[in-house]
Design goal:
The protein is mainly α. The protein has six helices and no strands. Helix 3 runs parallel beside helix 5.
Length: 182
């Protein structure tokens, strides 16, 4: 079961990277313009820049979280120390993701796309789930929320991955000859 969850987690990372690549290929702007430029007043540009911020930070944070999580699990801290650090780190990790997405939007003076808002709300739910699991495992020293945490986190990550992939696939469908699906 754990190998399935691990492969599922790497699938989410790949989907975010695929969404980032598709967005960069099909967007009107270059990587440099997306990183440092400000979008114009055009709604399409606003959405492209908003999703670039979201997908790039989401992919970076997911990869970082995967490696830090693995490092925590193999660290020589003892079981209790690992639990404390693991759940605290991932709560802080999700909070930093949300804050950085909001800050980068403010710096770029970019409106939030609907998908970006959805992902931020889902990240807030993941944050709450991580904090509940921290309370459950570290403070109460119980395991009441094991199945809620395990399947809830996987479900939320799958929902986030599918939302990440929606817009780049929508962009790709615009290039179909008859535009029937776009």
């Amino acid at each position: 079961m754990m190998s399935f969850l691990l492969s599922l987690d790497w699938m989410v990372v790949v989907s975010k990277l695929l969404a980032l690549c598709t967005l960069l290929i099909l967007s009107k702007h270059s990587l440099k313009a997306m990183l440092f430029g400000k979008p114009g007043l055009c709604i399409q540009e606003q959405i492209d820049h908003s999703l670039f911020v979201l997908v790039s930070l989401g992919a970076l944070f997911h990869l970082l979280g995967r490696f830090v999580g693995d490092a925590i699990l193999v660290a020589d801290l003892g079981v209790i120390g690992k639990r404390q650090l693991y759940y605290f780190y991932f709560s802080l990790h999700e909070l930093l993701l949300i804050v950085l997405v909001i800050k980068w939007h403010n710096i770029k003076r970019c409106d939030f796309a609907g998908i970006t808002k959805c992902i931020c709300y889902l990240s807030g739910v993941v944050l709450c789930l991580q904090l509940l699991r921290y309370v459950d495992r570290v403070i109460i020293e119980a395991n009441y929320l094991e199945s809620v945490y395990r399947y809830g986190l996987v479900s939320l990550n799958l929902i986030k991955a599918s939302v990440f992939l929606y817009y780049p696939f929508h962009l790709a469908l615009r290039y179909l000859p008859n535009r029937k699906y776009a």
